[in-house]
Design goal:
Elements lengths: L8 H18 L3 E7 L1 H4 L9 E7 L5 H15 L9 E7 H5 L9 E3 L4 H4 L1
Parallel strand pairs: 2-3
Antiparallel strand pairs: 1-2, 3-4
Helix pairs in contact: 1-3
Length: 119
């Protein structure tokens, strides 16, 4: 992960943890983890913003992979390093990033609004 001076260190540590966990769970299936939203645009406010990112994968996720991702995300969501507004991400197939489809189908989506459904 590239370091960016505009990203608070605790958020940088959170991002490093997320990338490490996605690599561990998805292994060769992981194409990349990409920021978007306020962090990517340089206007992140820890009191108002969530951490938005997209996880791109080669192939569909297994049920076990989805469960493991959600388990890890639920655990880290309680951390002091996660902004109040939380994490929001989608796992999408690489083919939809090359031949864009709207609305983009996703393998898994997580946000604070969906958290209770996963608990």
């Amino acid at each position: 992960m590239r370091k960016d001076a505009s990203i608070p260190s605790e958020i940088g540590n959170l991002l490093s943890w997320l990338v490490r966990e996605f690599r561990g769970i998805l292994k060769a299936n992981l194409v990349g983890v990409y920021l978007h939203g306020s962090l990517a645009m340089g206007c992140f406010n820890p009191k108002l913003s969530d951490v938005d990112f997209i996880v791109v994968v080669e192939r569909k996720l297994s049920v076990d992979e989805k469960k493991e991702i959600v388990r890890k995300i639920l655990k880290i969501s309680e951390s002091v390093n996660v902004p109040k507004k939380g994490l929001e991400f989608s796992v999408v197939l690489l083919k939809y990033t090359k031949n864009f489809v709207y609305p983009t189908p996703f393998e898994l989506h997580f946000s604070k609004d969906w958290k209770s459904a996963y608990e």
